[in-house]
Structures are given as structure tokens and as C-alpha cells.
Amino acid sequence: MYVLAMSGAVHLINYYHDAIREDGLHSAIERALVHGWFPCTFAAVTTAIGLGSLFRSHVVPISKFGLYSAVGVLATLVLLFLFLPALLSYFPSRKYNEQYGGKGDAEPTETAVSRWWQTAGGFIIRHNIAVSGCCLAVMLFFAVPLVSTSTDWTARLPHIRTSVKLMKLFSPDAEIIHHYRWLEDHLGPLVPMEVVIKIDNEKCDLSFVERMRLAHQVEETIEQKLDSVGGALSAATFAPDISPSTRKPSAMEKVMGLNEKMQRRIRDKELSERLEKYRKDFREYLTVDAEATLDQLGITGQLASRLEAQGLSTLKQIEHYGNPRSAGADLVSIKGVDADQAAGVEEAIGRWKAEHGEELWRISARVDALSDLDYAVFVDDLKAVVEPVLDAKRQELGFQQGEGIVGVYTGLVPLVYQTQHELMRGLFSSLITSFLLIAVVMMFLLKSPSAGFVAMLPNIFPVVIVFGIMGWTGILVDVGSMMTASVALGIAVDDTLHYLTWFRRGLDDGLDRKGAAMMAYQRCGTAMTQTTLIGGLGLSAFAFSTFTPTQRFGTLMLVLLFAALMGDLIFLPALLTGPLGRVFAPRKKKRASQAPSPAGTLPGEAALDEAALDEAAEDKTAAAAAKSKATTLHLRKDPVHRFPRTA
Fold it and tell me: Cβ–Cβ contacts within 10 Å for residue 91, how many?
């Protein structure tokens, strides 16, 4: 909003000074608004489109940023067209009027910036093909990291690396980084990675201790095979020794027929019964995902009516009522429910959970927060060591792949991994959306698809260059970086519209394309440079933030704005004066037998006038009249390509 408001104000004042040059200070504000409302309005619209495309992102902060900033950009038009003219009426440019008022271009305004662009513009226009070719070659080179041969559209930016790690959001010297480093040095890694083993109670008949051993085996495998893991925890961590018995049966036990296998089974049963009594104490690492109605739990009669009266009609509702350690502990507070009935409800829930639903065993691993660990690679490595353990147990029980026992990988690490993918999807999607919408607007304004396409090339120039550099150099793309792409595309169109306005005005005044391009340099080159300096240096203040996304947003916006200026004042003029610029030129077709059209008259209009005279003349033959009419219709079908007049 800040950049567009300043840009619009500078350009409107530029139109104001041009109005003073033409006819003096009187009514200069009105004439400036007549000339400037069109490019300023559509510059705001295209910028709002670029910002609004971020609303499609599934990352909520980016989505909100896109929506609110797009609305704010459109709101700046109120200040631009009402408040600024009011200020100019109270504080007119009297000194400028005394020096240049009513003199037109007889006494040009000479500044270092204008002299530079006049000189540079002359070189660019004389060597338009070479300059256009160089700009296209540079774009193609930096576009290499932005394309992919992969068929998966989520991987369109393979050379660009993203990062949404929480610790990467802060400067290395930030206080929170020092605190995290101390904690990891003295306590251990802090970022959690969760593995949840889901065991189907209806299919799997493993005892409680056997299930705990499986969780313990996964825990040990993670600690031993993954160097990046500082430690892991599970319910088995807080249990007594649950390893299978290795004691050999005594002579008496052998006489009684107890072999090692039977002895181990008896010990496991005793250990399971003992551990089951403390199931609630393992609730942080063990739970059952099950649901049932009161009828399914076997709760009927008056007890069921009293529970339903309190809104407790399902298993989960009862569990969430009161004390989480005991489902029936607080049921006695319900009128008509005694302690025996509450205990019966709790026992019914326990029986149902043992036979139905899925038992969830949680294994929590920890990785370093300040390391450069690639979370995508880590998730794959984790699956590679855990899945073989689960596969072996499934084969032992006769289950197929994904049946009975399933591993689920969750926690902060997969969340960050998915967010990285979402950043890439959002970057690609918002860029494509904003490019297509802005291209449609440009084609509508220029009344030509080909002209709109040519005008869009300089606007994607800064995005391709800056993000291409990030891809080649391996600079991470974070939340702040991602937002700049669509913003820069919208802002770049601002200066493009102003330059095209003066270029088309020069063509309408009878100048050729090279003369019109030089006129555009003279009229708005200084204003475009001023808006870039003001906006870029203003946003660069964010580069001093200790919050990395804000810091990177300010730095990239500064670079993108200057790259956009190069695209608008180097690439665009070279295109307009080169072969591709012919789509902007009026089509002046004349027959060899016709005299030149009067000044200010379009070729089609001259042909129509002559056809009317031919038809009115008595000495013209019918064949000549028919020929003249046919020529007139042919010229009428070739509309002159004109930029919309604002006067």
C-alpha cells in the first residue's frame, strides 16, 4: 500500500507539472486528473490483483496478507484522487509555474536523472534488437531454476529451497536463538517428531505387554539407527522391565510339563495384568480411539436416562466429563448415580476399548531445532527404519500390508515439511494466477492480445531474475520471500502503464515508435525512478528487522523494485521500438493514388471521406464507385490500434 500510494502520488504530480507546462497553473489539477486517472486507477487494480492472488494460499497469514493488502491498495485511490488534489490546490507549484508555465517543451526540465535516461534511452532505442535479445537471454538463464521436467505440479520449482523452520525465522543474534542453543546444549534436542502405532483391537490379539514391547522396539530402532535423533520416549520408557523371560525352567517345572515357551506366556500374562492396572498413567503415550453409544456399552435403564439427561450419550462424552484419569470418577456428582454405578460405567468402557476401536501407541523422538536438518529427508529416513519393524510384526501375525498394525508419522517435523510444500504450491499458484489476471487486464486496456503479451514480458522480468538468483545461489525461500513475487508483479505493471500511456500518446501525436519511446522517457522516466527510490528505500527499513521473514521481505522488495525499473526502462522500450513493437503502432494504410491524409485524420477516415466524394461525383462510373466502396469496407475491417484516450 505504501509503495503504490507513493508511486501514484509521484506520477500524478508529474502529470500536474506537465499540465502546468502546457497551459499554466490555471486548472492544472483538473487537467492532471484527466490525464492521470486512467493509468493510476488501473495500476492500483493490477497491483490489487497481484496481492489478491495470495488469498488462494492455504497458509493463513499469507492468505490474510493478500486479502487485506489488496483492499488497502484500492482504498489508496480515494486519497490519491481526493486528498492529493486538495493539497495541491492549497499548495500549488508556483515556482515551477514561473519557470516553465505555458512553455511546453521549449524549455525542458534538465536533471541528472532525466539526462541519464535521455542518453541511455537513445542507446537502447538505437540497439533495440540487441538489448531485447540480451534481456531475454538473461531471463532464460535465471528461469532455469524455476522449471522442472517433473510431472508433479507441486515440484515445479526444484532448485528453489524453502524453509519454514521456526528458528530460521529469527536472526542468528536474536535472544531466543541463544536460549534455544543453551537448552539444546544442556538438555537435548527440542523439536518433536511423533510416530503413532495404530493397533486394531478387533483383528489383533496381542497382549498388553506384547504391544508395549513393539512400541519399545520401534523406540530403540529410532534411537540406534538415526543419528539426527537425540532421544525417544514411549510408554515403555516409564514401565518396569518388560523383556521376555530368559530363565530356564527348573527340574520341578519340567516334571510339571512347563517348558520355556509356556513359562514365558505365563509371565507375560501376569505382567500384562499388572500393567493394565496402570493404563491411565500411560495416557500421554497410550490411548484408544473408539466410540460407542450407551446401548453398545451395555448401559440401559434409569442409569442411561440420567446420563443422557446430562448430555452423556456416547463413550467420548463420558470420558470428557470431569476427571480425565477416571471416566467414572465424577459421574457420582450426577443426581441419582452412586459410586457402584459410576464404577460399572468405567468398567464397561474398559471392556469396550479392549475389544473395539484402535489402540494408539505414541513414540516421541526429538531432533535439533538449530541444525540444518532437511525435514523432508528426515521423514523418509524415519519411515525407512520404522516400517521394517512393523512389517515383521505383521508377517508374524499373518496380516497384509497396512492391515492390523499401521504406523502414522506426525508432529512438528511433518507439519513443517507439509508447510514447505504448501509454500511452493502457493508461490507457483499465486504467480500463475496474478500473471494470467494481469495479462487479461493488459490485453483489455491495449485492445490487443498480442500487445498485452508483449507488455507483460517486462513485468515478469524482475520476478524471474530475483527468484532465479535465489535458486542458483541456494538462498532459502521463506514466508516473507514468497509474498514478494506476486506483489512485485503487480507493482511492476504500475510503471509499465505510465510508460505505455506516454508512448501511445506520442504515437497518437504522429511520432514514430522511436520518437514516442523517447517522449515517454522524457515524460515519465524521472517519475518512475523517483517512485522506485522512494518505495524501495522506504521498504528497505524492514531489512534491519531481527525477524527473518520481515527482513527478507524488505530486502527482496528493494531488489525487485529496482529490477522492475530496469524491465520498464530498458527491456520495455527495446521491445516497443523493435519488431515486436509493431503491434502498438497505428495501421496507416494508404492507396498509392490517394493523397496523404490531413494531419490528425486516420487513414480509415480519409478513405471514407474520399469514398463519399466518389459516390457524389456525377462523372464517376458505377465500377469506380463499387471499387471505392469495396476499398472503404476493407479499411473499416482493419481497426486502428489505439491506446484509450484519457483527455
Answer: 8
pTM of the entire predicted model: 0.62
DSSP assignment of 29-61: HHHHHHHHHHHHHHHHHHHHHHHHGGGG-SSHH
pLDDT digits (tens, 9 = 90+) for 339-360: 888 888 888 887 887 778 888 9
d(CA 605, CA 625): 17
Work out the number of other CB atoms within 10 angstroms of the CB of residue 451: 23
Q: Which of the 8 DSSP states describes residue 91?
A: S
How far apart CA 490 and CA 496 sit, in angstroms, is 10
DSSP sequence for 275-303: HHTTGGGGTTTEEEE---BHHHHT--HHH
Q: From CA 66, how far away is CA 431, in angstroms rounded?
A: 13
CATH 2.60.40.420 for domain 2-162+418-584, yes or no, is: no
**What's the rounded Cα separation, in Å, for the pair 379 and 411?**
11
CB count in 10 Å sphere of residue 637: 7
DSSP secondary structure of 359-411: EEEEEEEEE-SSS---HHHHHHHHHHHHHHHHHHHHHHHTPPTTSSEEEEEEE
Q: How confident is the model at residue 124 (pLDDT cuts 50, 70, 90)?
A: very high
Kindly give, in sequence order, each residue whose CB lies less than 8 Å from that of residue 470, ignoring residues fewer than 6 positions away: 145, 160, 477, 481
In contact, 638 and 589? CB cutoff 8 Å? yes
Give 140-183 pLDDT, tens digit per residue.
Answer: 888 877 765 443 443 444 466 766 666 666 777 778 888 888 98
Of the candidates 275, 207, 269, 265, which has an alpha carbon nearest to the alpha carbon of residue 235? 275
Structural domain spans, the chain: 2-162+418-584, 188-412, 589-647
Q: Grid coordinates representing 600?
A: 490528425
Measured CA distances, 555 to 360, 480, 524, 532, 558 (Å): 47, 10, 26, 14, 5
Residue count of the chain? 647
Q: Under a CB-based contact definition with an 8 Å cutoff, are residues 628 and 570 in contact?
A: no
